[in-house]
Structures are given as structure tokens and as C-alpha cells.
Amino acid sequence: MFAVLTLLVSANPLFASKLNYITEIQPIFQKYCYDCHGPNKQKGKLRLDTISTDLINDHKAAIHWHDVRSAINLGEMPPEEEPALSDDERRTILSWLNSEIKSAADSRKSKDGRVVLRRLNRTEYQNTLRDLLGLDISFVADLPPDGVSVDGMLNNGSALQMTGIQFEYYLKAARAALDHAITTTPEPKVFEYTFKKSTENKWHRKTKPSNRLGKEQEFIARIKKDYPETGEFRIRIRAKGEFNENTPSPLPRMRVMVGYRPDTEVYRKTLAEIDITEKGPHDYEFSGRMENFPLPVKGQGKYPGLVISVTNPYGGHPVIESLEFKGPIFDSWPPAHHRQILHDSVSRSGSFEPDYVREVVERFLPRAWRRPITDDEVIRFTKFFKVVREEMPTFEEAIKETLAMALVSPHFLYILEPFSAKQRPLTQHELAARLSYFLWSTMPDQELLASANSGELSTADELTSQVERMLKHPRSQQFVENFVSQWLDINALDRVVIDQKLHPGFKPELKGDMRRETFAFFSEILHRNLSAENFIDSDFVTVNSRMASHYGIDGVTAGEFQRVNLTAKNASHRGGLLGQASILTANSTGRDSNLIKRAVFVRKRLLNDPPAPPPPNVPELETADPKFALLPIRKQLEIHLHDPACADCHRNLDPWGQALEQFNAIGHWREKIVRPIHGKKNIELAVDANAKLPDGHTIQGISGLKTYLKENRRKQFARAFVSKLLTYALGRSLEFSDETLISDLTNQFLKNNLRVRDLILAIVQEPNFQSK
């Protein structure tokens, strides 16, 4: 009999796996797990005694076993109140799970793990048209919002579908963009104005007109009727600062705003904001496009004309000596963005028009479609031009309609990588596009395309060189802002309304500074190639004068963000993401901290271990108990744990947020919790930030949580960060077949001390990134 078993096992690895499970693994699960996940009870809808052990052919079972492994690794299974696995039992189960999961993941590589076809999202579309046409104006105002994937990503192909209605929106946007890019009007008149004194402000009386700007004054330049409504403009301001050398204070800061439309949500818009660093008069120059600012409709209502206002948003006293406006400005006419499309050529007119159209198409299509084009494609568009030319009144109108068709082609709207039956390497130009949309959220530049044209881009050395160059380029700020916003859900800030009665010193503009602080912090880590462990805890912050004041950090006077080293005397608890006001405020109620939201943030965003959604129709505890607000936090948590509908989830969730109770709704450090009762009075409660985590560890506040994460969850955090960055880089949700890739990248990431730029380089060198 033993010989027969040996033969069967050696001939059938799957049978060997089941035999190992039956004799060594199943008894352990039966001993510790079947009471809660067996025939009589299925907590979390999980039944372990009937799950298939054929992970290779049963994808659903493989995912369940993956979740089981995570629960055991995290110390969540068995739960704390049940007998614990011995070290040998834990090693035995994890060894079996690791082996089976890896085998299943490897077997699915040929079927899964392929990047799906995806449309450009709104940000990518805007940036691509800007760089293609050489026009920095909004092209996406009328486009529908993007779908968000289950991962919280906005560049996930599965969430970026296209409908017939959306196509109409894109066609309208393409036509409008080309109307701006191709000029059909004569050279416009250039308007120039100089203001040496602030003019009267009849429409906005919150501040007083003045040349010396305090918190209640603004310098106003009003142009009543003769000004451009399109085109680039320039504003030059001569200003100086008044400084108190004896008392460190924020530098005088000048905010320049253009436009006035009180009938719209954004009635004026900031052009620029800059510190005044000179005691003597100094010229500051800014430029923009009229189309980007809220201009009044001439002849309607109380028409204010073009209003340019200069304010001082924070401290200090800028003094405005003069303001000059000039616009539209251009180097020649037609302007460069027109000549880039309709270039000078001997075949421009007369009987040579078909040849000129071909030239235009041959120049435009490769840039728009981000790849070389075929002769058949050129012929198709020249034929289309010939048809519409008979219907259009002018050559320019016909060529705009022709190029608009190129901008609604899948070759423009999608990051198009033609499907093949088997996984294949990307072409050089497909790789250039994937790289560019990963790191810049826009089309490849000429240097990247040149590398693709040469056939060298996919070589390891050239790819590394290009990535290093791209990360140093200002366009990489798009990667910082887009990835960080989606990874951390920074836009949740916009969904929180701050209670001004409870937080009277809070200014709405501070949300922008909070957001920029987190971007600047990520940039510091990225560009210095620092360890991602700084996201958990760091010995520095990146703040400007407003955020430093918000945190109680002295000595920061500039409005620009800068690195500030932390000491025991200057808010050392601020290091890392969990001490940043953007995270704390976004995960608050606007009145007080929100322990549950903050707990979910730690689990979901930092550890990639999101809790299960709450069951339907469970009432809020605040609603169920009218005296809930009077209770200390620990009593509130006990109510969660005594409610059967809440206990299972909140036992493993609440402690993560309790550790952050030392911060109030806007991220201020606090010694007392202040809560309003029925809007009549406030009560004060002691802060209790001590927590016992699901694995039994006891931590004390934010410092204890950060220490615990570094010492006990470092590998889990590393894997979570790898997974989020890989998801963003590939533009798709990760699948079971990515398991080996994630593990390999995580191990390499840990070996390299979690250096972020090194991880980016590792991802782009992976076959999964370079293949379709």
C-alpha cells in the first residue's frame, strides 16, 4: 500500500498537495478554526472545511486561501480570545499556504496579469492636449467625471469605459481645442495698462483698496471694457516688503487673482502666489491665458470689467508701487501654437493644397497617436479632408475637422497596445507611452520618442537613464500629485466641512496648504531616494509658514514648502503621514476626530488590509444612544464591542484609530477633547489614545503606533506600498497571478531599505511592465 501511495504522489503533484493537506494541515484548521468557520457557523461568510485545495484550477478558492494567509500573518486568526497556534503549527500552515499560492500564481501568469485597454483619464487627456497643442487652457470642463476603481485609482482601465454619449463630449472638446489652436482671426490689438494706485472696489467689500496690504486690504486694478478675452497675458508688479527684523514673522506674501464673476462658483481665480523677499522695489512678472479665468459676460448685470486684485493672505506687509497689464502677447502672428500645426510650406496654397494637407497630417498624427503612422492612415485622413473640404467654407475649418477626427480616434483617447493571443513585449513606442503616462501623466516628449525611434529604450541602461531624467523633470510633479492623491485619498479633504464655530481660526485656504504639504513630503522622499519608512515616521517635515504655524513649529517664515528637521521641542510627533493635517482632517467629521475613518485609513492605505464593509441597516451609535457624545472614547468603544452587529469588525478596527485621538478634527495636537452638546455648550473629556491592537500589542498614542508599525508591520507596509505603486504603474487592479511579482518586488524593496526611486526603477524593468 505504501508503494502505491508513493507512486501516486510522485506521479500527481496535485494529489501530493491534497494528501499533505489532509494529513498535516486539515487537522490544525479543524482544531482551531472550524468552530467559527465550519458546518455550524461561518463568520465572515467563510467556511474552511469545504474550500477546495486546488488553488491552480479554482480561482475563487485561491483568493479565499490568500485571505486566510493574510489573517494568520497579521495575528487576526485565531482571534485573541481563542487558543493560539503554536509556532510549529503556524509555520506548517504558512509553509503550505505559501507553496500553494505561489504555484497557483505562477500557473496563471499566461492567462492573467495583462494590462487592459484603458482610456486617458481627465488629467491625462488635459495634459496630453496641452503638450500636443502647446496651449495651457482647460479642455476638460465639459467632460464627465472619471470612474474610480475598487483600488481607489483613477487610471484603472476597468473603470475608464467609453459610451456613445461620452464620445460626443470628446468630439466637442476636440473641436473646441482645435478652434483655440488654429487661428483664423487677424492679428489682435494689444492692450497695455499701468496702475499706480488701487482702484475702487464696488463689488467685493470684504477688503479695502490700498497699496499697502494687510489682512483687510487689497490692491485692485480694474479695466472697464477694453481688454482681451482670449490669448496669453502678462502682469508685472513692482512691489517691496516691510519687514520687522526684531521679530521673526512670515514673509510678506502676494497673491495675484484675475477675473470677477460673482454669478459663478469660482468668482475669481488665483494666478500666482509669491513671497516678497526684497526691501527695495522689485519687479515680479506673471503670465497666464485669459481663457482660464472667470471673465464677466459683457453687457450683462453689474458688469465689473476685468478685475486684477492683489491680496496678502498671511502676515507681513507687501507694498505695491505699480501694476502693469499687457495682452494678448505673442511672438508673431499667427502664434506658435498655430504654426506648429499649419506650418509654412511652398505647398500651402493653390493646386498644391492636397500635398500640404498630407504634410499637416504626417506631422500631426505621429505626435497625437504617440507612434509612427502608416501610409494607409495618412491616405484615410487626406481622403476625409477632401470630403469635408467641399462642405466647409474655409481650408482652416476643414483641416480642424479632419484633425478633430484624429483626436477622437482610439489611437489618441486610449493608451493603445493592440491585443495579441499571447503575452508579448511592448513595442518601443508602446513602452514610451506607458512610461510617460506612469511618470508624467502625459504624452512622451521628443527625447523619449527619439529613444523609442532608435530602438534602445527597452535596454536596461537606457530605460534607467530615461526614468532618472523623467523623475528630475518638472512634469514628474504630476506623478507625485496624482499617485499620492489616489493612494491616500487626499481629495477626501474636499468632502469635509470644517465647523468654524469649533475651529474659528481655520481658513478654508489652509486645505490647499495641507494638500501641498503631503505632496512636498512625498517629493522630498522621492527625489532624495529616501526610505518609504519615512511615510510611517520621519525626523523631518516639509512645511511652509502657514503649516508651521498650524503645527506650532517656530522659525519658518517662507510661503514655499521646505524641509524642517524635527526635535523634541518642535512637534516631533508630526513625522510621517499620520501626523499630517491633510490625513487627519480628511479623516475627521469637521467637528471632531473620526476614530473609525482614521482606523480605516491605517488599515486600507498603509497596510492594504481594508476592513469588510459594514453590514446594511446598522444604525450609527450616535443615533442609537443620545448620550453617546458624553461618553469617553473607551466607553464608546465598549459599546461597539458589546453590539453583536459591530463586535467582530470593530474589535480589529477601532484600536488603529484610537491611537490617533491626540489630534483633533483639523490636525491640532490636543490635551482635551472638546465636544458640543446639542449646540448649546461644550464638554471636555480626557484624551485616551492608548490602545490594544488585534495581535495583543499595547501601544500608547501616535508614537506607540508608529513604533509598532516600524517594528511589527514593516514588511506588510512594504508590500502594501509596492502593491499600490504597481497598481498605478500598470493601470489595472492586481490579480492573483501577480502574487509572485509582488513578493519579489517587496523582497527587493526591503533589501534596498524601502528606497522609493529604486522601487520605481525596479517596476519599469519588470517584464509585466514591458509586456502586453
Structure commentary:
This protein has 772 residues and is an alpha+beta fold. Among the domains are: 2-107, no CATH class; 191-327, Jelly Rolls (Sandwich); 484-712, no CATH class; 714-765. Helices cover 42% and strands 12% of the residues. The chain has 27 helices and 17 strands. The strands form 6 sheets. Strands 3-4-9-6-7 form a 5-stranded mixed sheet, with no helix packed on it. Strands 2-10-5-8 form a 4-stranded antiparallel sheet, with no helix packed on it. The two termini are 49 Å apart. The model is unreliable at 1-19 (pLDDT under 50).
Structural descriptors:
12% strand; alpha+beta; Jelly Rolls; five-stranded mixed β-sheet; 772 residues; disordered N terminus; single chain; four-stranded antiparallel β-sheet
**Biggest β-sheet, characterized?**
5 strands, mixed
- Which structural class should the secondary elements be placed in? alpha+beta
- CA-to-CA gap between the ends? 49 Å
Shape: globular
Task: Using the CA coordinates, give the radius of gyration.
Answer: 30 Å
**Beta-strand content:** 5-15%
Mean residue pLDDT: 87
Low-confidence stretches: 1-19
State the share of residues found in helices, binned by percent.
40-55%
Oligomer: single chain
Number of helices: 27
Strand order of the largest sheet: 3-4-9-6-7
Question: How many distinct beta strands?
Answer: 17
